[in-house]
Amino acid sequence: MSEKAEQIVSAAQSLFLEDGYAATSMDAIAHESGVSKPTVYSHFQSKEGLFAGVMCRMCEDIGFDAFDGVETDGPPAVVLKAVATDMCRRLVVSEQGRALLRTVICEAPAFPELGRVAWETGPRYGREMVADYLAGLDGQGEVDVPDPVLAAGMFFGMVTGPFLIPVLLGTEPPPSEAVLSETLEKIVATFLKGVSV
Amino acid sequence: MSEKAEQIVSAAQSLFLEDGYAATSMDAIAHESGVSKPTVYSHFQSKEGLFAGVMCRMCEDIGFDAFDGVETDGPPAVVLKAVATDMCRRLVVSEQGRALLRTVICEAPAFPELGRVAWETGPRYGREMVADYLAGLDGQGEVDVPDPVLAAGMFFGMVTGPFLIPVLLGTEPPPSEAVLSETLEKIVATFLKGVSV
DNA sequence: GTCTATAAATGGATAGAC
DNA sequence: GTCTATCCATTTATAGAC
Asked: CATH topology for A60-194?
């Protein structure tokens, strides 16, 4: 990708995330990226194409590798807390993550393909990895999880539940690392007690 | 409110919910409500005012009376399942509820007051009622809930977790009543086990 | 490939007739 | 109070010079 194309993508990212699809103009993108509008159109077919391309790429970049760098053979409470912390940092604490989530939720009806990519690369992928992990623990008799996918869904819900909606609605600031750690400790404990044998 | 004003509000509701703030034009609202644009402006000061007014009113209407019509002196599993079912019907199953949630999430940055109203009348109100209920159970020694607000947040997260994101992203249809009932049964059981004494 | 300039359409909002 | 007609700014997208 040429240098100008990258500048355009970068400007489009921040503007789309900041203002949403409809409220962001190609003029603004051209201005912000320091090129003229025809140059934007020489690299990207249309506003829709630029938006879908940029957002899908972001989903894949931020994409939710929940278990990246997490040692999965420690105690479940430690493993799950690490996974939960990673998820909250990506979706709740990170301003970019929040903005991306907000944007894909907004535009999913108009861009179904984007909704699908966001789901596959993000929550669904994370849920599957947690489900596999829980199924493994169940096989070892450490927990009682008859439906791993449902349990993983509960886990994700519990972890994000206390933060996600108020933060998305702008009525609470994202939690500090200290509050996050303390809260997730309790949440993971409650979850593990709920699925204990 | 006059008849025309009500037609305008009704048209504005469906169009804003369907297409979002920026993609909905005052022309379209006038056309859909069967009046002319100046009539719209004679009743409402501006597009922003119309949007904020209509959405805030919807939040208060749909507003989350989690315990309305729920007998709170039955077994906790029954009470909490009723609350959870009511919440999922409002936010996940109802197309209008989903659209409202999506819209307020989208526009919360541009309309902070709307975000506040949506939070206060909806999730926060529901969370507080569940927190009070759990605190009562804790006082009777039926559960171990040292932090009722956090526990209520976990509860809401667990209940919506398996449904909310995939439904908002458009990758899964809302659950049938049968699936909802079966799933919430398991979720409530896991939650209660997690907070058991 | 990139720019200036502009086309063609649509947006929010209003003046003035009735 | 309501409409027809219109203003003015802005939008997406492109034509043509360099």
From this structure: Tetracycline Repressor; domain 2 (1.10.357)
pLDDT value, residue B2: 83
Distance B39 CA to D1 C1' (A): 8
CATH topology of domain B3-44: Arc Repressor Mutant, subunit A (1.10.10)
- For residues A132 and A83, give the distance between their C-alpha atoms in angstroms, rounded to a whole number: 13
Question: Considering CB atoms only, which of A106, A170, A193 is closest to B193?
Answer: A193
On the question of a common fold for A3-44 and A60-194, the answer reads no
Domain residue spans in chain A?
3-44, 60-194
Output the pLDDT for position B173.
Answer: 96
Nearest to B168 among A105, A153, A195 (CB): A105
DSSP-based helix, strand, coil % in chain A, nearest 5: 75, 0, 25
Q: CA–C1' distance A5–C2 (Å)?
A: 13
B64 has a pLDDT exceeding 80: no
What is B61-194's CATH superfamily?
Answer: Tetracycline Repressor, domain 2 (1.10.357.10)
d(CA B145, CA B125): 19
Q: How far is CA B130 from CA A184, B81, B169, in A?
A: 20, 12, 27
3-state secondary structure A125-172: HHHHHHHHHHHHHHHCCCCCCCCHHHHHHHHHHHHHCCCHHHHHCCCC
Nucleotide C12, nearest residue via CA and C1': B26
Task: State whether the beta carbon of B94 lies below 7 angstroms from any atom of strand D.
Answer: no
Query: Taking CB atoms and an 8 Å limit, are B166 and A124 in contact across chains?
Result: yes
Q: What pLDDT is stored for residue B133 in this prediction?
A: 96
